[in-house]
Specification:
With 89 residues, the chain is mostly helical. It is built from 4 helices and no strands. The protein has one domain: Helix Hairpins (Orthogonal Bundle).
Length: 89
């Protein structure tokens, strides 16, 4: 089940860098993290759902690439977003 628009807007408001920001790496990482968490919960109930598991792995890889990009650009922003969403730095 996808995120509702109100949930998405709440996440965007929390992680945006400037008003109206929807595409910064911070926002994208936060949205991916929420989707990853929801899909992980789904896979705990439906262990044999291999198609969703493949999607989960691609989302995790995309999030990792975004964090690596952010670390190259600005290490402080990268470590801040990692702490906010609960990832190891």
């Amino acid at each position: 089940m996808p995120l509702s628009s109100s949930q998405k807007q709440d996440i965007i408001k929390e992680f945006q860098t400037v008003k109206g920001d929807t595409g910064s790496p911070e926002v994208q990482i936060a949205l991916l993290t929420t989707r990853i968490t929801r899909l992980t919960d789904h896979l705990k109930l439906h262990a044999h759902d291999t198609h969703s598991r493949r999607g989960l792995l691609s989302m995790i890889a995309k999030r990792r690439r975004l964090i690596n990009f952010l670390a190259k650009v600005d290490k402080a922003r990268s470590s801040e977003i990692a702490k906010k969403i609960g990832l190891k730095d």
